[in-house]
Amino acid sequence: MLFFSIIITQVVTYKKLMLYASTNIRFALPRAGHVRLAIHDNLGREVKTVVAEPKVAGQHQVTVDMSNLVSGVYFYRLQVGDFGEMKKMIFLRSSRL
Asked: Are 54 and 32 in contact, with CB atoms under 8 Å apart?
């Protein structure tokens, strides 16, 4: 039986009056496998493929550039072999610093 864990942390950095937003998604793999991590909008359309490659067992972290996306509800899906999990995240963009 495979066990996977997904932890999400959101990081927003402000630079020179421009908003740069990125989200760090961390996940653990109990064994090596082909990983696909994608971001979907609230209509289910895939808006970004973050990872689509083989990964070794252990802890992993990927940074997702969200600067080209609008505020809203998004879903991220991790697929590894037969295992797939989808979770929700909220992305808020502020026009004020």
From this structure: yes
Condensed to tens digits (0 to 9), the pLDDT of residues 40-84 reads 999 999 999 999 999 998 888 888 888 888 888 899 999 988 888
Q: Rounded to whole angstroms, how far apart are CA atoms 57 and 72?
A: 32
* Rounded-to-integer distance, Cα 7 and Cα 28, Å: 9
Contact 36, 4 (CB under 8 A): no
The pTM score is: 0.76
Beta-carbon contacts of residue 47 (< 8 Å; ≥ 6 apart): 39, 40, 41, 69, 74
Tokens 């653990």 found at: 28
